[in-house]
Design brief:
The complex is a heterotrimer of chains A (about 160), B (about 290) and C (about 750).
Chain A (H helix, E strand, L loop, with lengths): L3 E7 L2 E7 L5 H8 L18 E4 L2 E4 L12 E3 L12 H8 L9 H14 L5 H7 L11 H16 L1
Parallel strand pairs in A: 1-5
Antiparallel strand pairs in A: 1-2, 3-4, 3-5
Chain B lengths: L1 E3 L4 H10 L4 E4 L5 H6 L7 E4 L9 E3 L3 E5 L4 H6 L1 H6 L1 H7 L5 H4 L4 H6 L7 H7 L3 E6 L2 E6 L4 E3 L2 E2 L6 E8 L5 E8 L10 E9 L5 E9 L6 E2 L1 H7 L6 H14 L10 H22 L4
Helix pairs in contact in B: 5-8, 9-10, 10-11
Chain C lengths: L23 H6 L14 E7 L5 E7 L1 H5 L3 E5 L12 H10 L4 E2 L5 E7 L2 H10 L1 E6 L6 H5 L25 E9 L2 H6 L3 E9 L11 E6 L5 E5 L4 H12 L6 E5 L15 H11 L3 E4 L2 H7 L6 E9 L5 E11 L7 H8 L9 E8 L14 H19 L3 H8 L18 H9 L2 H4 L6 E10 L5 E8 L5 E5 L7 H13 L6 E5 L16 H28 L6 E4 L2 E4 L10 E2 H6 L1 H4 L3 E8 L6 E11 L6 E11 L6 H20 L30 E6 L21 H13 L5 E2 L3 H12 L2
Parallel strand pairs in C: 1-12, 8-27, 10-11, 14-15, 18-19, 25-26
Antiparallel strand pairs in C: 1-5, 2-4, 2-6, 3-5, 7-15, 8-13, 9-10, 9-12, 13-14, 16-24, 17-18, 17-23, 20-21, 21-22, 24-25
Helix pairs in contact in C: 7-8, 10-11, 11-20, 12-13, 15-16, 19-20
Classes of the chains: A alpha+beta (about 160), B alpha+beta (about 290), C alpha+beta (about 750).
Chain lengths: ~160, ~290, ~750
């Protein structure tokens, strides 16, 4: 099996890697590039823990081949904060205790970021349906929804 | 295993036709990658069609719409014109998976995966959508219901690719709707589903109708008797009752992890009735 | 150690506040390292071959082809994990579950494993392993398994706990019985009797992080294990015993844990990873797929329960009886026994009897799931209680208040209760605005109570004071949901310093004494007790050092608000010494300052909750929607109230999923049909409303601050509360969990006579 050479942009940086044709972008990020913020909860697109943004689209990186990233823009949780300044969503997740175990948190943050980019003033129902692709087993979602609501109001004011 | 990304339809067809072993077309990948992960398929060749010019576009023509094979369902949801004319098709496409899956999955992929429970297919069947197929023998167009032939099986020949889904322009006073039943509010595969597409006359009487059912037979059903129950009538209670009864009767479901025979029969009628009511309202019927 | 763990009333400075957790930033930036986020140089990829059969004799395993595949570094079978359990039946079961020895006992049972240079090679190698199975008849249903005609899983099992020793082996490993009084007499006094049978299906904890570990065994007999676990000390013991190692030679580090809920209290893959590493001479990383997690970790029991309750017209329960049958998977457990103990624990009963049967089936080994066994028992009992209240014509809350257990009540499982929260949670629920909110068409309200014992256990904590006055707290209970924040608050409280001055970590097994797992809601309860004890020991040292610095008798030095103060008029001019000042001088006053604690945290206060929920049912489809949900629970003392609320909400959400949609579905061939998050349907964000919480604080007399465990009780009432709500909305009593739409619709249709 021949490796595929890929040149792409991850969190604004040019990155080159060699991957197998059947290797997912999630495996590339985690195993080849050391970006372990995206998690594998299922590997079948059912849990959202591996969420990333690919050319402005929210996707599960377990459902993207590493080879497909050629020439595209990838955003992961590792690029969400600016230096030591957390993104408002990250800050609000901390303040509202919107995480218990935290394994789903990177995926939720990426999905919430995408949600607010497309809809800066979502209703509770829009948040709930917008985040329905991300499973959380610890919180019952209550504090996650509140954190996103609070972040939305902070970001609107900014 | 090889991964290729052809730039033209002709190249893609040539590569597929000339391949030995298993070849897989990669558009959204939301079915293919899951099957690869589960070890159900190990393709020797993966043909990524997303770099082919025009395949990622929704084109509006004099005859209607052409939805390219690489158009994500999320993109369909963002098309104002498509939403206006075919809201039932769009709502079906937007029900597949999560936001994350929406960003990747395509209605052509949904059709070719040939699951009896595919969400977009009943809506496409109700909408009388056609599939534009390109292959070694040139181009041909078939009704979408002719593509899946059974669970996981299609009528596509070796080397053939569906290039686009074609939808007609709407006659005045038309409306479509799609409803499915799932146990949760999101993320599930349809247990049973129904698509209804209606055109009314000026008095609000149903002039033409197409009714489809999903997840109740090996392929999506186009239920002509159900359409007949509506044609020539306003959507009164008797017509809706008749529709529900016919739809329940048309089902040939199975018991499985998602539902029972009895449940699917009963709910198929309920959903058809509800979808017809929505489609009727969208067509301007009162 | 002269530590007095008794409760004493006090006002708090830190405890009860809601600071940001110390591990928070790492978790929102993707930096936190979970089980699968760790790698070692030269590591191999491990993969496990699993039985496709529910029940089969393993005649022969041929690994020769797999061994010859280039890139394969080790292949193991049960032969590479020899039986060193020395007659310890429980350990033998763990060993057999890790790698099937003679028979595969469920779909997914491990039969062999490989370590290879990459995942592709390992997967290919699995395909080259030839297993010769003789397929046997199987049984997956708990009631079927009890029948005489059922295939027997283990012919050395003869039911324990029955008067006459059985002559034939069976799938019933044990009968247990609890209660007091005379139920026959009690039922004779009853004006109303409700008798019902209930079933619940098997569910999974559904943690989002699959099991993952990296094992590295050296040829000198030492080893390291990095693993996501609820109890790394227990994992060390079990792995060391199964591999024939000395415990101290195996260092286990617990990673951040992506959820456990009881499911990460057992070793599954870890001994296999260690055996692979030992054979290959290289580190091995073993990560389960989601499919493997469902098929081969430890879901909860499926159950079948009969309940009978009688009461007088005035609403007094005169007798209560239950028979509980719980599936254990293929190995003996005490799951029905826990159900039998908890079933009637909420009530003050003169005549009560419960009988539990532990039943073997061809499903994965049952593991703990949050208040294990209690939710199913509560579902059956609280459903019958609701029905009985209705028959008598009493409000269900009033009926429960009338019969609620109190301080001094002899519990249905034996002990006499101290101060408890069942009455207060019921009163709070009765007065909650939720109870009075109007309901619409097809909507119903339900409520139910729940009980859980809570657990204390062995605990060890180190508190080290740095020369800059900052405090390192090393605990041995894995942090599953914010306990590092809670324990830092407790250390700050005791020492009288700021929360920010304390940094809590979970220490590895080589750095701290033994700790039991984080289970039984013990994490914050027991480690806060040990932290208080350690802090008080440190304060003793701090006082001694201050006394030395002042050259005064230590008995004249007291500790107040983070300072040493010389007490007495003669010391009037001595300025108080801060912890920081004493720490800075420590190098000259006797060296590092620390406090340690090793204790058994006895006296975990029992916990009660009352839940209220509103459900809407679509009578045409059987679809349900949770409209509103309220949790009222006693926390003893909420150390970090936000995380207490989180435990209440999370347990309720898991209970909602269990009640409505989650279930293991087996086909006739004994294979699991829904081993993934697509068809094992845990609640998604859009399925749930906000979950209101009300924290009550009835101090636990056995903890210095009154803390009770809070983690588990919240999953006990939801099954029943939702069943009561659905039954009220649909107008038909629901007796089978989950109340999935096909079941609800079938019940409605049957009630309609159609």
């Amino acid at each position: 099996m021949a490796g595929v050479a890929v040149s792409t942009t991850i969190n604004g940086d040019n990155v080159e890697y060699l991957c197998q044709p059947d290797e997912t972008l999630l495996d590339v990020l985690r195993d080849r590039l050391g970006l372990t913020g995206a998690k594998e909860g299922c590997g079948t697109g059912d849990c959202g823990a591996c969420s990333i943004i690919l050319d402005d689209r929210l996707v599960c990186s377990c459902l993207v081949l590493g080879a497909e990233a050629e020439g595209r823009r990838v955003e992961t949780i590792e690029g969400m904060a600016h230096g030591d300044k957390l993104h408002p969503l990250q800050q609000k997740f901390l303040e509202h205790a919107a995480l218990q175990c935290g394994i789903c948190t990177p995926g939720f943050l990426i999905a919430a970021k995408d949600l607010l980019a497309k809809n800066p003033d979502p209703t509770e129902e829009e948040i709930r349906f917008g985040l329905a692709g991300n499973l959380c087993r610890c919180t019952g979602y209550d504090k996650i929804v509140r954190a996103v609501q609070d972040a939305a109001s902070v970001m609107k004011g900014a | 295993m090889r991964y290729i990304r052809p730039l033209s339809m002709e190249d893609a067809v040539g590569q597929l036709a000339g391949s030995s072993g298993t070849a897989a077309i990669l558009a959204g990948g939301s079915d293919l990658l899951v099957r690869m992960k589960g070890g159900f398929i190990e393709p020797d060749l993966i043909v990524d069609i997303k770099a082919i010019d025009g395949l990622g576009e929704i084109r509006e023509t004099a005859e209607g719409f052409s939805i390219g094979a690489a158009v994500s369902c999320a993109l369909m949801g963002e098309s104002v014109a498509l939403n206006r004319e075919w809201p039932g098709v769009v709502e079906a496409a937007k029900l597949i998976g999560s936001k994350q899956v929406q960003g990747r999955c395509t209605i052509v992929g949904n059709l070719c995966n040939a699951s009896p429970a595919a969400d977009s297919v009943p809506a496409l069947v109700a909408a009388a959508a056609r599939a534009l197929i390109i292959g070694p023998g040139g181009r041909r167009t078939v009704p979408v219901e002719a593509v899946p032939t059974g669970p996981g099986k299609t009528s596509l020949a070796k080397g053939e690719i569906i290039e686009a889904i074609l939808l007609d322009r709407r006659a005045p006073r038309s409306g479509d709707a799609y409803l499915r039943f799932i146990p949760r509010t999101e993320m599930d595969i349809a247990v049973v589903s129904a698509g209804v597409n209606l055109t009314l006359d000026e008095q609000g009487v149903v002039k033409s109708a197409r009714v489809s059912l999903g997840a109740v037979a090996p392929t999506v059903l186009l239920v002509e008797e159900a359409a007949e129950a509506l044609i020539g009538r306003k959507l009164d209670e008797a017509a809706l009752e008749r529709l529900a009864k016919v739809c329940s009767g048309a089902c040939r479901p199975i018991d499985d992890k998602r539902g029972t025979v009895e449940f699917r029969r009963k709910v198929a009628g309920v959903l058809a009735r509800r979808a017809a009511t929505t489609a009727y309202a969208r067509a301007g019927g009162k | 150690m002269n530590f007095d763990p008794r409760y004493s009333s006090r006002s708090f400075a830190s405890v009860g506040t809601r600071p940001i957790r110390p591990d928070g930033v790492d978790k929102v930036t993707g930096r936190a390292r979970y089980g699968a986020d760790f790698n070692m140089a030269g590591q191999l990829v491990g993969r496990v071959l699993r039985s496709p059969h529910a029940h089969a004799t393993i005649r022969k395993i041929d690994t020769s082809k797999a061994e010859k595949l280039p890139g394969v570094k080790a292949v193991i079978t049960a032969a590479d994990l020899p039986d060193l359990t020395d007659g310890d039946a429980a350990m033998y079961d763990i060993l057999d579950n890790c790698m099937a020895r003679k028979k595969a006992l469920y779909d997914g049972h491990a039969v062999a494993a490989v370590a290879a240079v990459d995942a592709r090679t390992a997967t290919q190698a699995l395909k080259l392993i030839e297993v010769d199975y003789e397929v046997l008849p199987h049984v997956t249903d708990v009631d079927e398994a009890m029948k005489h005609s059922a295939p027997v899983l283990n012919d050395s099992i003869f039911t324990e706990g029955v008067e006459e020793k059985p002559t034939k082996p069976s799938n019933v490993t044990k009968r247990s019985q609890y209660g007091h009084g005379d139920v026959r007499e009690g039922f004779a006094q009853a004006d109303y009797v409700v008798e019902r049978s209930f079933k619940t299906e098997q569910t999974h904890q559904g943690y989002i992080e699959p099991h993952a570990c990296v094992a590295s065994v050296s040829s000198d007999g030492t080893a390291d294990l990095w693993v996501c676990t609820q109890g790394h000390f227990v994992y060390r013991q079990h792995c060391a015993q199964l591999l024939g190692m000395e415990a101290s030679k195996l260092r286990v580090t617990s990673s951040e844990i992506g959820g456990g809920f009881g499911g990460k209290t057992h070793v599954w893959a870890e001994p296999v990873a260690l055996a692979l590493s030992r054979k290959a001479g290289r580190p091995v990383k073993l990560v389960m797929t989601r499919d493997e997690v469902f098929r081969a970790s430890g879901p909860t029991s499926a159950t079948s329960i009969d309940v009978k309750i009688g009461a007088r017209k005035d609403g007094t329960i005169t007798a209560a009886e239950a028979t509980l049958r719980y599936s254990c998977g293929p190995y003996a457990g005490m799951w029905a026994e826990l159900g039998a103990m908890t079933a009637f624990a909420c009530y003050k009963l003169d005549n009560v009897k419960t009988v539990g049967y532990e039943v073997l089936v061809n499903r994965p080994k049952t593991a703990a799931y949050r208040a294990p066994s209690a939710p199913m028992a509560a579902f059956a009992v609280e459903s019958a209680v609701d029905e009985l209240a209705k028959e008598i014509g009493m409000d269900p809350v009033e009926f429960r208040i009338r019969n609620a257990a109190q301080e001094g009540t002899r519990s249905s499982y034996g002990p006499v209760y101290g101060p408890i929260g069942i009455g207060p949670t019921l009163e709070a629920a009765k007065n909650h605005p939720h109870m009075k909110a109007p309901l619409g068409k097809n909507q119903g309200r339900g409520m139910a109570c729940g009980f859980w014992f809570n657990f204390g256990g062995q605990t060890c904590t180190d508190l080290n004071i740095g020369m800059d006055g900052s405090v390192s707290l090393a605990v041995g209970t894995v942090d599953v949901g914010g306990s590092r924040a809670s324990l830092s608050l407790v250390a700050a409280e005791e020492l009288g310093i700021a929360y920010e001055q304390v940094k809590a970590v979970v220490a590895d097994t080589s750095s701290l004494g033994y700790n039991d797992m984080t289970d039984g809601s013990r994490g914050t309860f027991s480690s806060s007790m040990a932290t208080i004890s350690a802090a008080r020991n440190a304060i003793k040292v701090l006082r001694e050092r201050a006394a030395q610095m002042w050259d005064v008798p230590v008995d004249d030095v007291v500790w107040e608000k983070g300072h040493a103060i010389a007490k007495g008029e003669k010391y009037g001019n001595l300025a108080a010494l801060s912890l920081k000042e004493i720490a800075a001088a420590s190098g000259k006053t006797g060296g590092p300052i620390a406090g340690h604690s090793e204790l058994v945290a006895d006296g975990a206060g029992v916990s009660f909750a009352t839940h209220i929920c509103d459900i809407e049912v679509d009578p045409e489809t059987g679809a349900t929607r949770v409209l509103r949900y309220t949790v009222v629970q006693d926390a003893g003392k909420a150390v970090h109230p936000t995380y207490v609320e989180g435990q209440y909400q999370g347990g309720a959400a898991q209970g909602i999923g269990w009640a409505l949609n989650e279930e293991y579905i087996y086909a006739k061939d004994g294979r699991l049909q829904n081993a993934g998050f697509l068809d094992y349907r845990i609640p998604v964000c859009s399925d749930l409303p906000m979950i209101d919480t009300q924290i009550l604080e009835i101090p636990n007399p056995n903890h210095p601050y009154g803390v009770r465990g809070v983690g588990e009780t919240s999953i006990v009432p939801p099954l029943a509360a939702i069943a009561n709500a659905v039954s009220n909305a649909a107008g038909v009593r629901m007796t089978h969990i989950p109340m999935s739409p096909p079941r609800v619709l079938a019940a409605i249709e049957a009630e309609r006579g159609g």
